[in-house]
Amino acid sequence: MAETLMQHMPGPHRRIPVMLGRMRRFIARRMRDNAATLQPGAPRDFIDCFLQHMEKEKSNPSSEFTLENLELTTLNLFFAGTETVSSTLRYGFLMLMKYPHVQEKVHEEIDQVIGRLPQDTDVYPLLSSVLHDPSVFKHPNAFDPMNFVDESGRFKRNDAFVPFSSGKRLCLGEGLARMELFLFLCTILQNL
């Protein structure tokens, strides 16, 4: 009854079903894209992890790992994560406005610990710090292809390996470069 009554009331709440439909279509599209490019053992996000558990439990008829539950759980994460974070930030900013001396202390600590860059400073990621990290690579200072192979001899992805940079400075030609390197190297070695 409340739903019927609400349909006749003016206001922004009338857009909720439309927005909910858009969100569900977006999530369904992401689920399809993730399923099509899924790499077992190298999950990129929550959807990949869920899909991998679905695969493990596909023979269990009472499994909770279903496509419908994936869609609804992802939708729930969007709403729960968005609302709680925005409410907490709003309350935090309210407290900082109410107590400016606390805001000043927080600002000083951020400047002291993190620091500031002058405006218009070019920032480049220091890739060597990541590529030589012993917590990520077993032998970081030696040429060791085994850093990219799992126990069964299969290629394993390593997100710390960023030869094409990352973030805003990510190389747009990474896919083409990888393909060319693979083709050239294989062709040359094949013809030795």
UniProtKB/TrEMBL annotation:
Cofactor(s) needed: heme
Record-given protein name: Cytochrome P450 2G1-like
Family note: Belongs to the cytochrome P450 family.
Pfam families attached to this UniProt entry: p450
Membrane-spanning residues: none
Gene Ontology molecular function, alphabetical: arachidonate epoxygenase activity; heme binding; iron ion binding; oxidoreductase activity, acting on paired donors, with incorporation or reduction of molecular oxygen, reduced flavin or flavoprotein as one donor, and incorporation of one atom of oxygen
GO annotations of cellular component type: cytoplasm
Source species: Columba livia (Rock dove)
Domain of life: Eukaryota
Residues annotated to bind heme: 171
Record-level GO BP terms: epoxygenase P450 pathway; xenobiotic metabolic process
Keywords, in A-Z order: Heme, Iron, Metal-binding, Monooxygenase, Oxidoreductase
